[in-house]
Fold this protein.
Amino acid sequence: MLAGYPLLSLAVWVPIIAGALVLATGSDRNANLARWMALIGALVSFAVTVPLYTGFDTMTANMQFEELLPWIPTYNINYHLGVDGISMPFILLTSFTTILVVIAGWQVIQTKVSQYMAAFLMMSGAIIGVFAALDAMLFYVFFEAMLIPLFLVIGIWGGPRRVYAAVKFFLYTLLGSLLMLVAFLYLYFQSGGSFEILDYQRLPIGMSAQILIFLAFFLSFAVKVPMWPVHTWLPDAHVEAPTGGSVVLAAITLKVGAYGFLRFNLPIAPDASHYLTGFMVTLSLIAVVYIGLVALVQADMKKLIAYSSISHMGFVTLGLFMFNSIGTEGALVQMISHGFISAAMFLSVGVMYDRVHSRQIADYGGVANKMPIFAAFLMLFSMANAGLPGTSGFIGEFMVIMSAIKVNFWFAFLASTTLIFGAAYTLWMYKRVIFGAVANHHVAEMKDVSAREFSFLAVLAVLVLSMGLYPKPYTEVMHTSVNNLLAHVAISKLP
Amino acid sequence: MTEMQKLYLLVPLAPLFGAVIAGLFGWAIGRTLSHLVTIAGVAVSCWASWLVFQDVQAGHTFNGTVYTWITTGDIRLEVGFLIDSLTAMMMMVVTFVSLMVHIYTIGYMREDAGYQRFFSYISLFTFSMLMLVMSNNFLQLFFGWEAVGLVSYLLIGFWFTRPTATYANLKAFLVNRVGDFGFLLGIGMVLAYFGTLDYASVFAQLPSMANTHVTLIPGMDWSLISVICILLFIGAMGKSAQFPLHVWLPDSMEGPTPISALIHAATMVTAGIFMVARMSPMFEMSDAALSFVIVIGAITALFMGFLGIIQNDIKRVVAYSTLSQLGYMTVALGASAYSVAVFHLMTHAFFKALLFLAAGSVIMGMHHNQDIRLMGGLRKYMPITWITSLIGSLALIGTPFFSGFYSKDSIIEAAHAAMEHGLPGAGFAYFAVVAGVFVTAFYSFRMYFLVFHGKERFDTHAHDSHASAAHDTHSHDDHAHDDHAHDDHAHHGGVPHESPLVVTIPLILLAIPSLLIGYFAIEPMLFGDYFKGAIFVNNELHPAMEELHHEFHGAMAMAVHSLTSLPLWLAISGVALSWFFYMKRPDIPAAIKQRFIIIYNVLDNKYGFDTFNAWFFAGGARALGNFFWRFVDVKIIDGFFVNGTAHLIGWFSTITRKWQSGYIYHYAFAMIIGVFALVTWFVRVA
């Protein structure tokens, strides 16, 4: 029924056009119109991505919903879109998160409302483009384009040090992506003039060239994930970003980095990937252990959650480089779950920030006395962040640990320390913020969640719990694509 | 789905239903409906468990899947039930004690603002614990394992405005996580080598894995089964509070008393014991693991008992006695007497729940005073609590014919048999459990005498100032008044009073099995074939059970025979000594305390574990985190590399900027030099 519609193009362009329309409402006199238009735009954008899941064929590893149009024929650059079981879930995650962001910014953002909403809608379209692009140049364009709205969101609606954070964020990510462009150009010439990513995956490449290609991609994606030691932009960006910016940053843009490893590093340079496994595993485990400890001593809630994100993303990169299906699927599940949980955590901090205007743990205490419903939600999300079974946070970590122990007991040993550190930093924060007697008059004046806040927290709570109790629907769509990828990576591409 | 399968589902889902209703809608439906719906849920569950129990006794077991949680590669992870005699017994214990605690809570939490929340939590706990014991695979076991940990966390911190409560619940969760760390790795090793997490499939493959070795540290070959067993047991050490992961249990007394009875005495803390019994086919293959288990159990049994002697808080005395009894169960596990361990688990669940609930009744009667030095003579005022406490205490110290006698005496016999068969560490364990009998009797009756007999040391007029009274060791009840005030008690003028029926009826109902169940259950459970198929013992290698069977000539004969045995006389002398010290000559313990102040301080500091953990682990982790953050992240990565790059570029452009002076003659001069250089080069090349 839906086969005739260009679903992926709709998924990409509906939010971008909606963003343009919201922008057209102009100044803040029409703020309410901008808000409602943005909400409708986000809902429609989400609606057009749903058929990607319902109409998805789980039996094939081929690209689905493909669209192919010439774009710049001189250089053989095409507008080529398509999804498989690896990219499809992230498109839904992106369009879904955008709805949350619009609702979360409803009252909080009072200046330049139309621009704020438009930035997120357009960013959503660009990120969906990243996940759907099958042409390297198209990928590159979307990959860079998505940074601009985020850069603006941090730079305009951010905190006091927003300019430093925005520039640091932009330079960090730009530095990496330039090398990716160089790699694309090399592959373009090697493949005899193609920008098709799938062609690159079939291309035989020598070992030293593979290693260089791997490193070029590595730099651009490792910054995004972010992996240690190129992670220091993330805490700054999160602290300065408005709540919506943090949500998108944590829930989606970090996933772009890990997705890049899956789409480029592993299939294009499989031999180099195997060769550099030790390197990748070391960095991943440093992220889990070292960053876990760093998170423990943070005094700023957003910084704490930012560091915890890095630590959780360490599981993703660890799982990817175990080269078995439970590890790869664990990494993918961890990415989706982290999308829910980090969004929920940042939104929760936003709920408190909107009332007290502080992110410092020390400024809170005894919030449960004043906001019992909120405290219950945050308890659930904190437990999910600490990887409690029954929540989505457990599955990915569990699967990656199970896959790591097959490869090397000590990988799993170090990764499992997150059971302790993750619980320690999350619950210690919870204790200091939520438990106790009412700490000061700011806390005493806090009101429990509004209907608007309740709505997005409840939706996320349902997702976190349902995924934790029944993750099968999430992994079912991945199986074929993941197995295909693993089979591909297992075969040497050396000429 | 057959009728029985529906019943299996009903057992955990009925309490879950109650928990959800009371938890999400408790604000709307009010207190009475909330407690009715949760109690009904647990009652249904208890009744269904009884039907299942009878069905299992008729020989019907079940092992099947409820739904598939996830599939990946060739691994299939499921949620399913294994219903056999071990499960059925646990289901009965859990649901019965839970039902008693639910009813008791109506009285105990009557004036608490979090009434509905409390009922929701204890029903949720019942659900989680049932999922744990009914599981047919390691994954669901871990689910239940962590879920009961979560509820325990929530309930220890139930009075969340008290700093001590939120400290205790964080500590409990983290220490348990240390155990879970080992447990998860154990599960990982099972999955990595067996390719499945289903109990039956894993056990079926055990013979082929007997000689598999793993090299975790280069140059050291360890038996796979030993590694797995020890890793799994580390999980049990956390949950069942075995040395050195025992530190959380005494602090968990910050929670309301009903959950101390349900979670921290009768059920959750025995999950580790249950797990090892469930894994008996695996532990039987590893003497190394059994030795490890028996030594840990022995240390816990004896040294935690010593701590009970100096406690003055009524709940903490019972808490240390719980630790010590868990050590006894662990010793039984190590001696390959799994059924004895589970038997003691059951009898202990009844009499320890009874003792805790009785302690709670005393606390209520004393208007939330918990210091036993300020009690005395309560038997006059609280007759039912007095009698039931006496029954519980007699069961605890192993008085012949009481339930605790049969289980504890069997443990001592089993440790003796293990020692004779040369299991390393069993000699120490035998000594520990025998010496422990004296210690148990001493601290139990010290408490009993101080509470129910002797002079009335409480002040009947000034109860509201009790918190400031001599509380030199513990400060945790300073806030008890604010959060849990039973305001109406003020009218009573402070005279102790017996608790209402909702409190005393559960006491009576728990006193009955505490008294009788050992006598009736020992023969079928230990020497009959009740656990056939559920617990496996390799009688050739570990003949403890066989020897016990050989010595056993009926429950009556066992009790009569004990009159001439060492443990009974140790118990009697413990009781006698405590009577002499605390009733007759209270100056003696005071003098001993003065004379041996060093030993007293060691005990008072709980051997220094808390101090060490706070300094080394908590402090060390924070110091390391600060170092990584402030030095590596901020100074090196950001300061040197990131900002350094920016500064380098800035410095470089400051230099080059000078060349862009804007003066024509500067540029002309540079051009001339350039032309000159080019010409020179061309000339040379030509």
Remarks:
- The longest strand of chain A covers residues 64-72.
- Residues 325-356 of chain A form the longest helix (32 residues).
- The mean pLDDT of chain A is 89.
- The beta strands of chain A are 64-72, 77-83.
